[in-house]
Specification:
Elements (H helix, E strand, L loop, with lengths): L2 H36 L59 H4 L12 H14 L7 E13 L12 E7 L4 E3 L7 E10 L1 E2 L2 E2 L2 H17 L3 E3 L3 H18 L2 E7 L5 E2 H10 L3 E2 L5 E4 L5 E7 L8 E2 L1 E7 L6 H19 L2 E3 L8 H21 L6 H6 L2
Helix pairs in contact: 7-8
Keywords: Cell cycle, Cell division, Cell inner membrane, Cell membrane, Membrane, Transmembrane, Transmembrane helix
Function: Essential cell division protein that stabilizes the FtsZ protofilaments by cross-linking them and that serves as a cytoplasmic membrane anchor for the Z ring. Also required for the recruitment to the septal ring of downstream cell division proteins.
Protein name: Cell division protein ZipA
C-alpha cells in the first residue's frame, strides 16, 4: 500500500468519526431541552376542570331541557362570503321577489269526494245493523259472487238483517232492489225482543234456511256455537225485562168529561202534535217520539174524554230524565187546566214526592242500561224493546 492510499484511509476515518460525534452531541442537547420543558408542572385541562362545570352522570334524575330568555348580543356576527367581481345587471322591478317565488312546497292533501263520504256513511250504517252481543250471525263465504236478487228473506219470528260485502269491498244492507254482487254475506237473527228470547226451534229453522241457501250457491257457511247463543239470548231477555218500564201519568175527570177541543189546544201549545195514528206525540228535533198523550181506555179520541194518559216508554227514549221532568210538568199543567186529578195507574195521587220517587227509580234503570252498554233510545234499545 502506498503512502497516498494510507493517508486517504486515515482522513476518511477521521471525517466519519467527526460526523458521528456531532450527531451524538446534537441528540444529547435536544434531549436535555425536552426534559427541562416537560419537567415543569403544567395543569391537565381534563383532570383539573372546575366541579361546577361538570354534570354528574349518575344523578338518578332525568334532566329535561330548559328554555331561558337570552339577551340579544350587541353585535351580530356576519358571515363573509368570498367577493366576486360580477358585472352589474339591470333588474326588472316587475319580476317577483325570491320570497314570493320560493314558497314552501306542500304535499297535496288527499281529496275526499262527496261520493266517498256517502259510501262511508252507508257502510257505517250497514255494519251497525248487526251486533254480536244482540244477534246470532251466520257468515256465508261465496265461491262466486252472489247477486243481491238471489239472497232470500230468511223466514224467522224475530228480526233478521243481512249484510253483503260487494265486489268493491263495501258492506251494505242487502235488498232485492240492489244490483250488487256479494263475495260474503252476514245474516243476523236477533236474540231477544219484547216477545221473549230466541228459542232453539227458531234458531234451528234459521240455520237450516241459511245452510240450504249456501249449499245452493256452493258457498261455505259458519255458525256461532248455538248453545252459547241460546244462553246469551235468555240472559239478554232477563235483563231487558228488568228495565222495560212504561210510565203512565193519568189525568182523570171529577165527573164532567174533558172537552177534547180544549185538550187539543193545550197539547199543541205544549209542543205535542197529532200524528197519523190519531194520538198526540211530543217529539225530539230528529222526529223521535219522547212521550205521547192517549185516551186512558186506549180508544180513539172523540169530542170528549173521561180520562187522559201520558205514556213514557223508558228504554226507548234518549235523555230520559229531562224528558220525564218535562212530561211531569206538562201533565200537572193539563190537570190544573181541566180541574182533573193527576194519578198513577192504580189511582193513587201523583204528589211531588211520588214523582220524585219515580225519578229516582229511573236513575237506577238508566244506570243499569249504561252498565250493559245499551243506552236508552239507542239503535240497540230500539231493536230490543220493539
Amino acid at each position: 500500500m502506498t503512502d497516498l492510499q494510507l493517508g486517504s484511509l486515515i482522513a476518511g476515518g477521521a471525517i466519519v468519526a467527526a460526523v458521528y460525534a456531532f450527531n451524538w452531541w446534537q441528540e444529547h442537547r435536544y434531549r436535555k431541552q425536552a426534559q427541562r420543558a416537560f419537567a415543569q408542572n403544567q395543569p391537565d385541562v381534563l383532570l383539573e376542570t372546575q366541579k361546577n362545570m361538570v354534570r354528574p352522570a349518575a344523578s338518578g334524575q332525568r334532566l329535561e331541557p330548559m328554555i331561558e330568555p337570552v339577551a340579544a348580543p350587541a353585535v351580530t356576527p356576519v358571515r363573509r362570503e368570498p367577493q366576486l367581481d360580477v358585472p352589474e345587471v339591470e333588474v326588472d322591478d316587475d319580476l317577483p321577489s325570491f320570497e314570493e317565488v320560493a314558497e314552501p312546497v306542500r304535499a297535496p292533501e288527499p281529496k275526499v269526494t262527496v261520493k266517498q263520504v256517502e259510501l262511508q256513511d252507508v257502510e257505517v250504517l250497514a255494519t251497525s245493523q248487526l251486533d254480536a252481543s244482540l244477534d246470532f250471525i251466520a257468515e256465508v263465504h261465496a265461491a262466486e259472487p252472489i247477486p243481491a236478487a238471489e239472497v232470500p228473506q230468511f223466514p224467522a219470528s224475530k228480526r233478521v238483517m243481512v249484510l253483503g260485502l260487494t265486489e268493491t269491498g263495501q258492506w251494505e244492507v242487502v235488498n232485492g232492489r240492489s244490483t250488487s254482487r256479494y263475495t260474503e254475506l252476514r245474516a243476523g237473527l236477533q236474540l231477544a225482543d219484547r216477545q221473549g228470547p230466541l228459542t232453539q226451534e227458531q234458531l234451528n229453522a234459521f240455520c237450516m234456511a241459511v245452510q240450504q241457501f249456501a249449499d245452493e250457491h256452493e258457498a261455505v257457511v259458519t255458525f256461532p256455537q248455538r248453545s252459547g247463543k241460546l244462553g246469551a239470548a235468555k240472559d239478554l231477555d232477563e235483563f231487558c225485562a228488568s228495565v222495560d218500564v212504561l210510565i203512565g201519568m193519568n189525568v182523570i175527570s171529577q165527573g164532567k168529561p174533558f172537552p177534547m177541543e180544549r185538550v187539543r189546544a193545550f197539547a199543541e201549545q205544549a209542543g205535542l202534535a197529532r200524528g197519523t195514528d190519531g194520538l198526540f206525540h211530543y217529539r225530539s228535533e230528529s222526529g223521535k217520539a219522547l212521550f205521547s198523550l192517549v185516551n186512558q181506555d186506549q180508544s180513539p179520541f172523540g169530542n170528549t174524554s173521561d180520562g187522559l194518559t201520558f205514556l213514557f216508554d223508558v228504554p226507548r227514549v234518549a235523555g230520559g230524565l229531562p224528558v220525564f221532568d218535562h212530561l211531569s210538568d206538562v201533565a200537572q199543567q193539563l190537570a190544573n187546566l181541566l180541574a182533573g186529578d193527576l194519578v198513577d195507574d192504580s189511582g193513587r195521587p201523583l204528589a211531588p214526592g211520588s214523582i220524585a220517587n219515580i225519578r229516582r227509580q229511573l236513575t237506577n234503570i238508566y244506570a243499569q242500561m249504561d252498565d250493559r252498554g245499551i243506552a236508552p233510545g239507542s239503535m240497540a234499545a230500539l231493536r230490543l224493546f220493539a
